[in-house]
């Protein structure tokens, strides 16, 4: 290890020793990887490590119950191929999904299995590349996947990989892009940073990759000369299963109970709980605000509302989904609500929305001092009993996303 790098590793380790909430079991080479990915900046490296460790603590959907020889993980491994290839000074990372019927597809298990493989790569891959080229094979992607995925968790996990993992993303190629990829991307694009959108390139087939990457660096499945993806993927899984303790040893007990006793029930609990946590402000307000929600009307619904709703439906509580009704225009409201209760903008007889909105803003501005109080109606979580049954969320101190 170069002397300068060794000194930087020592500095990071001294910082870790002063941070009681961060683990102390990151070895020197992993710290080197973090430093390398952040171009030697100690401040950025600290933020990256903070993001890496803190997110793993709160993303329970992925970082709990990671037994690599469990039936669910073995199934997830069997329908994916994950591989990496050195390409000159860069490194290629490939993810391929192989379940065209979606018979075995479980969104959470796919992400969980990928997290295990990413950890193994972090520990075993000694190459420090100038940049990473990501290849996402969309060959078996289907619109039928949309109702079964959690778009908010995809965004959070993707951002975690970019901000918390020691990588330098140079380019993302989405190959074998289906005919509807533009519609799918249009739904996902709003939740992705513009820096990422700018480096994503969709290609119609794997042969198109040859215009961008030398064939000698690509796997045989893509007409290349490098090792087969399936062969390498199998080798990674063999290593993971031999070293199964790294993913399972510290995550197989919850509240002192062995999760083998209630593995299935707990996964169901996580998925159900996730609907509440990831549905964002709507679920939080409906559960915590003093309101009695009877019906939700989404009016002036665009032609693609069904596709949009299919995307967010999995992360909304079923009670909410059952009371949402889409209407094509404001006149349709008259069939459900008497016009005398509707604002003039909707053909009703009540006060104008704009006039009432302005009145609310005036009142808010007059009561400005109250809203400047950041502690208004907040609980003091530092005084919260450890035996409290409600879970807290945790905000980390994360680095600003920077794509090279």
From TrEMBL:
Domain of life: Eukaryota
A single GO molecular function term of this UniProt record: phosphatidylinositol bisphosphate binding
InterPro entries tied to this protein: CRAL-TRIO_dom, CRAL-TRIO_dom_sf, CRAL/TRIO_N_dom_sf
PANTHER family: ALPHA-TOCOPHEROL TRANSFER PROTEIN-RELATED, GH10083P-RELATED
Organism listed in the record: Papilio machaon
GO terms for cellular component: membrane
Protein known as: Alpha-tocopherol transfer protein-like
A family per Pfam: CRAL_TRIO
Residue ranges constituting the CRAL-TRIO domain according to the UniProt record: 70-230, 284-354
């Amino acid at each position: 290890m170069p002397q300068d790098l060794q000194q930087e590793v020592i500095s990071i380790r001294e910082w870790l020793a002063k941070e009681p909430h961060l683990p102390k079991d990151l070895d020197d080479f992993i710290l080197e990887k973090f430093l390398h990915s952040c171009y030697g900046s100690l401040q950025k490296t600290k933020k990256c490590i903070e993001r890496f460790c803190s997110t793993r603590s709160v993303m329970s959907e992925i970082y709990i119950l990671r037994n690599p020889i469990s039936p669910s993980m073995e199934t997830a491994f069997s329908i994916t191929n994950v591989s990496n290839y050195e390409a000159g000074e860069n490194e290629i990372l490939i993810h391929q999904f192989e379940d065209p019927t979606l018979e075995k597809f479980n969104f959470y298990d796919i992400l969980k299995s990928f997290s295990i493989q990413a950890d193994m790569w972090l520990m075993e891959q000694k190459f420090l590349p100038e940049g990473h080229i990501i290849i996402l094979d969309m060959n078996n992607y289907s619109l039928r996947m949309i109702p079964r995925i959690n778009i908010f968790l995809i965004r959070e996990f993707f951002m975690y990989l970019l901000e918390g993992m020691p990588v330098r993303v140079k380019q993302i190629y989405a190959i074998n892009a289906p005919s509807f990829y533009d519609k799918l991307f249009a739904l996902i694009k709003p939740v992705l940073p513009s820096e990422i959108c700018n480096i994503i390139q969709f290609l119609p087939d794997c042969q198109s990759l040859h215009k961008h990457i030398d064939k000698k660096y690509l796997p045989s499945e893509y007409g290349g000369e490098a090792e087969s993806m399936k062969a390498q993927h199998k080798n990674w899984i063999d290593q993971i299963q031999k070293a199964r303790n790294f993913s399972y040893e510290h995550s197989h007990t919850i509240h002192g109970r062995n999760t083998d006793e209630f593995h299935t029930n707990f996964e169901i609990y996580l998925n159900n709980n996730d609907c509440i946590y990831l549905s964002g402000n709507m679920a939080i307000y409906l559960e915590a605000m003093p309101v009695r929600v009877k019906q939700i009307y989404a009016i002036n619904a665009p032609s693609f509302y069904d596709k949009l709703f299919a995307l967010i439906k999995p992360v909304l509580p079923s009670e909410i989904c059952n009371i949402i009704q889409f209407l094509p225009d404001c006149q349709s409201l008259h069939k459900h609500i008497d016009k005398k209760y509707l604002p003039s903008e909707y053909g009703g007889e009540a006060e104008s929305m704009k006039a009432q909105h302005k009145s609310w803003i005036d009142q808010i501005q007059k009561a400005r001092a109250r809203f400047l109080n950041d502690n208004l109606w907040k609980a003091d979580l530092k005084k919260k009993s450890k035996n409290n049954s409600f879970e807290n969320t945790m905000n980390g101190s994360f680095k600003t996303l920077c794509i090279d």
